[in-house]
Amino acid sequence: MHNDSPDRFDSLADKLPFAVDDYDTVREVYVRWRLQRAASDLETIQTWSYLYALRYLYARFRTERTGASSDLDMAVLRAVQRIYRSLESVRDPERFPQYVGVICRRDIKSHRERRREMAENTASAAPDEAMEAGGSA
Q1: Which residues have a Cβ under 8 Å from the Cβ of 100 and sit 6 or more positions away?
Q2: Per-chain mean pLDDT for the chain
Q3: Cβ distance 80 to 48 under 8 Å?
Q4: Is residue 33 a contact partner of residue 41, using CB atoms and an 8 Å limit?
């Protein structure tokens, strides 16, 4: 994660009217937004969603020590885009925080699978390249 990420997280978290882990309030704001469509509620939900994804994925990347900071940025971007695209269609608005958590868990699983596939492809391509290099000499 970039060195400025904790600062970036803190400065955005300060803009929320509640703590990032206050899931009851997130739920209330989301349900209210679904009913009333207030722009301020939408902004709060989007900010919270970004912060949740950033914190969740950063923790996973840090503990697993996988990937570069650009991998983390891409994972956060994918998760946030998926969350934003589905804001209108969450089936049970009362479970919005859990829904966001599921998206983040699926994205980290997807990231692991892509890294595993890339490692396997790199490992299987290496002997072929060595054979080609040896065969052309």
Answers
A1: 49, 52, 53, 83
A2: 86
A3: no
A4: yes
